[in-house]
């Protein structure tokens, strides 16, 4: 009753319980307000505390005099999702409080720096909100342990999978669609690396809130971990309804997010799988949605993709490749083919690149791009790479002296480069083959270097310490910069194939300008430039004019098994391609 008699207006704060003027004695109702065991507060239309009782101090550590005048929203973690039974807009300062009960769950900072979760419940009279709060921190912690993600309060993988299983049972005899969406934030690692993990956590919390706001009342949003979220949507009448759900989820990323350091725009890739038959399970739908998400990323990200029959076939082929890979190495199904690298100054064959081929027992000879990504993902690339090092070193030793100071190069995967035993495996391959290290070159992909430049620099320095050459492979895939040529210990750079093919496209002038800049900078740094994928005479002429020193590609010779390599025929063929053409020094 007394709470209803507290006046509105400027004098209210000074007369409110919990912050009485000096000398005035509290009446019986004010004593009840202040001494009741539960937390009580009065909040004005600007969302400022007008009064709080002593229980607030026991829970949060802050004296009532400190809290009075502060905004309720300023006292909570701003990037946590608030669980509100009304529109979040009604929490904004100046918006009228609803007359009926409003509840919100918010995380408050304790005076000692820890966090406490409070469940507020209250209703308004006039321009005031009269509320009580319960400390539910231990309940929240228990919820986290039994199925809630602690950062976003969303269901975790186990709980979400159970929800999907129950939904499939409900839809067993229904013609309606059930959809699972797998959502991955594009380039989230860059946010963590550039802004820090606190900013990353704030971004994830806001994404969770956005996704919750994008779904219908009965849909379930979950977080699997990292930057991976999922949505379960039921009772969808057609594929158009499924698409509508995906579009709403994608639209949740349209507006910038505020993570404390300023607005940031992120996008997402979304995979969608539908369950309409008795064979669907929670695991199968999550796997299918995951595969569809990867298709969305491959198509350029910031979009959604549906799992369909074509993708199902791709998944089955992928599983077959992964299964066969596990026995291929033990079954001696791999071999190396060698493609010559030529000097554009005089046509000499100065090296060969060793390229892994899989002699698949059913599908025939497979190039590396058909299986190497799978080997990278499941870790088989490490033993496969070690085999390639040993085989290529032994072959290089057999050619040494016969073909002059020929340099054989071997591709190194990102996973190999970070493997602690990689340098030792290179040293052993050289020792076993008794090959001079200068006759061996390791081609390191741009993506492996840029993932962690300081660590990559240290590893490349170790490798060069063995005496081998190091090449920066796939230069020009879109992430490299000339600055890396200064910072990284490399002997060669290999221009990416699509960059070379661009010399004969409509945009050839732009490619030519970049080519001249790259070759000029590399020459000043003492780095040799090798063009990969040369297929046409016009490309060769452009490379020579720009000062490129070496090249390889089918214009000179294809990759062949070692037994079919004939350096004399290569020399004659190459000399005819390059005779009379001297690299430019402009």
- Total number of domains: 3
Pick out the low-confidence regions: 1-17
CATH architecture of the largest domain: Alpha-Beta Barrel
CATH H-level name of the largest domain... which superfamily?
EAL domain
> Overall 3D geometry?
elongated
The CATH class name of the largest domain reads: Alpha Beta
Largest sheet: 8 strands, mixed, barrel
What's the arrangement of strands in the largest beta sheet? 14-15-17-18-19-20-21-22
Quick description:
By secondary structure, the protein is α/β, with parallel strands linked by helices.
Task: Walk me through this protein's architecture.
It is a single chain. With 586 residues, the chain is α/β, with parallel strands linked by helices. The protein has three domains: 2-141, PAS domain (Beta-Lactamase), CATH 3.30.450.20; 147-307, 2-Layer Sandwich (Alpha-Beta Plaits); 319-567, EAL domain (TIM Barrel), CATH 3.20.20.450. The strands form four sheets. It has an eight-stranded mixed β-barrel, surrounded by four helices. Strands 2-1-6-5-4-3 form a six-stranded antiparallel sheet. Helix 8 (188-195) runs antiparallel to helix 9 (197-214). The longest helix has 20 residues, at 309-328.
Question: Which helices and strands, and how do they pair?
Answer:
Layout: H1 2-5, H2 12-15, H3 28-35, E1 39-43, E2 49-52, H4 54-60, H5 64-67, E3 83-84, E4 102-109, E5 115-125, E6 128-135, H6 137-145, H7 157-170, E7 177-185, H8 188-195, H9 197-214, E8 220-225, E9 228-236, H10 239-251, E10 257-258, E11 263-264, E12 268-275, H11 282-298, E13 303-306, H12 309-328, E14 334-343, E15 349-360, E16 364-366, H13 372-378, H14 381-399, E17 407-411, H15 414-418, H16 422-433, E18 440-445, H17 446-450, H18 453-465, E19 469-475, H19 482-487, E20 492-495, H20 497-501, H21 508-525, E21 528-531, H22 537-546, E22 550-551, E23 560-561, H23 567-578
Parallel strand pairs: 12-13, 15-17, 17-18, 18-19, 19-20, 20-21, 21-22
Antiparallel strand pairs: 1-2, 1-6, 3-4, 4-5, 5-6, 7-9, 7-12, 8-9, 10-11, 14-15, 14-22, 14-23, 15-16
Helix pairs in contact: 8-9, 14-16
